[in-house]
Design brief:
Helices cover about 35% and strands about 20% of the residues. With about 425 residues, it is α/β, with parallel strands linked by helices. It folds into three domains: about 120 residues, 3-Layer(aba) Sandwich (Rossmann fold); about 240 residues, tm_1862 like domain (pyruvate-formate lyase- activating enzyme); about 55 residues, Nucleic acid-binding proteins (OB fold (Dihydrolipoamide Acetyltransferase, E2P), Beta Barrel), CATH 2.40.50. The N and C termini lie far apart (about 55 Å).
Length: about 425
């Protein structure tokens, strides 16, 4: 009997990419391939690339080149590339890296399985085969693909196309399967979760979906990511407040706080509008932890624009904050603008905002000392275990160091004894 063909899968980029990799991995496992964690022992290396931002593109290309070297010198016989980078630059990849055997798009799961196995996909719904690459107690739930927003700096619509929402029954079926597999936290993701369902002839809304997800008994936490402030309707805010399983947490990228910059970015909302959305959120959910993302050094960003952004950060005091320096994306409207903010100025602005946020984070965390918090354990250890509160998403937010052993995937009550900028430390109560 011939040995199974072995495959090593590398997934790069965002959580949405990870879900694509999980769908594919499940399908490949069903097709009786052997999956290995060791690239050097694989017959085939499959790389799911990211094409968003320079740093992500560089990582994707470097990873492909490393795999190409293995193909030249090792056991690797086949190099397959998929994802956002290949969606956007297929010809360039083909010409520049001839070691690549096949290039696929982001959603070509059937074609990839067929190419690698010589067999057709045996189920109409590839989600049936999804195999989690996250710890078994949490999983991302992608509710739509693509984006209609047309933000000036963003190339996602060029790579992923316009929004295509999944139906609520389809999403619920997947969520229930995840719950049956032991998932206790689902993280709702899309390019823009707040415009979910707008593309249907008969519109549905994120609020409708959240209320349905809230009925799944085994799920304890529902976490919402990638909310667009211009699309955060009151019905969504109310649903988040009403649903007891929806975490007191929202990832809502605002990108900037200067009206001229926001207008140039095509964000559809000015500073006052963003402030109004935040006010409504915190009125409905007083304990809400709000994460946002900012871009500094966007073309035309003056000192006045930046100062308005800095003042807004100091005013709002976001619980979680990610900051990026502007990077030109080919083919976007912003690429036609002069990238006129010097690199050193971009870096200075980023560093100043990060220092401000460090102080805010420390003060926030110290306020939890002496309290007891519900924590989901992500890593179990003998001396120290690691978990998260409902205010924290995996890998990007704060963690809780738990003194002593705690069971991975379980919830426990932790008495918070000390804190720093990005960590809480405590013991199981």
């Amino acid at each position: 009997m011939d040995p199974k063909k072995s495959l090593h899968l590398i997934s790069l980029g965002c959580a949405k990419n990870l879900v694509d990799s999980e769908i594919l991995l499940g399908g490949l496992q069903q097709a009786d391939l052997s999956i290995t964690d060791d690239a050097q022992k694989a017959d085939t290396i499959l790389i799911n690339t990211c094409g968003f931002l320079d740093i992500a593109r560089e990582e994707s290309i470097d990873t492909i080149l490393e795999a190409a070297e293995l193909k030249k010198s090792g056991n690797v016989q086949e190099l397959v590339v998929m994802g956002c980078l290949s969606e956007r630059y297929p010809e360039e990849l083909k010409n520049e890296i001839p070691e690549i055997d096949r290039i696929f798009g982001s959603s070509d799961h059937r074609q990839i399985v067929s190419f690698l196995t010589g067999k057709e996909f045996s189920k109409d719904d590839p989600l049936f085969f999804r195999s989690l690459m996250t710890p078994g107690h949490y999983a991302y739930l992608k509710i739509a693909e693509g984006c209609d927003n047309g933000c000036s700096f963003c190339s996602i619509p060029l790579m992923r196309g316009l929004q295509k929402s999944r139906t609520i029954p389809d999403i619920m079926d997947e969520a229930r399967r995840l719950a049956d597999q032991g998932v206790r936290e689902i993280l709702v993701i899309a390019q823009d979760t707040t415009s979910y369902g707008w593309d249907f002839d008969k519109k549905v809304y994120l609020s409708d979906l959240l209320r349905e997800l809230n009925t799944i008994d085994a799920i304890e936490w529902i976490r919402v990511h990638y909310a667009h402030p211009a699309h955060l309707a009151q019905r969504i805010i109310q649903a988040m407040a009403d649903c007891d399983k929806v975490c007191s947490y929202l990832d809502m990228p605002i990108q900037h706080a200067s009206d001229p910059i926001l207008n140039s970015m095509r964000r559809g909302l000015g500073q006052d509008g963003i402030r109004d959305r935040i006010h409504r959120l915190k009125t409905a959910m007083p304990g809400l932890a709000l994460r946002t993302t900012l871009i500094v050094g966007y073309p035309g960003e003056t000192e006045k624009d930046y100062n308005q952004l800095r003042d807004f950060v100091e005013e709002i005091r976001f619980d979680r904050l990610g900051i990026f320096t502007y990077s030109e994306e080919e083919g976007t409207p912003a690429a036609d603008l002069k990238d006129d903010v010097p690199r050193e100025v971009k870096d200075e602005r980023l560093n100043e905002l990060q220092e401000i946020q460090n102080g805010i984070s420390l003060e926030r965390n110290e306020s939890f000392m002496g309290t007891t918090m519900k924590v989901l354990v992500d890593e179990s250890g003998v001396d120290v275990s690691v978990g998260r509160t409902e205010h924290d998403s995996p890998e990007i937010d704060n963690i809780v160091h738990i003194q002593g052993p705690a069971e991975k995937g379980q919830f426990c009550n932790v008495a918070i004894e000390s804190a720093n900028e990005y960590e809480l430390i405590g013991s199981i109560r």
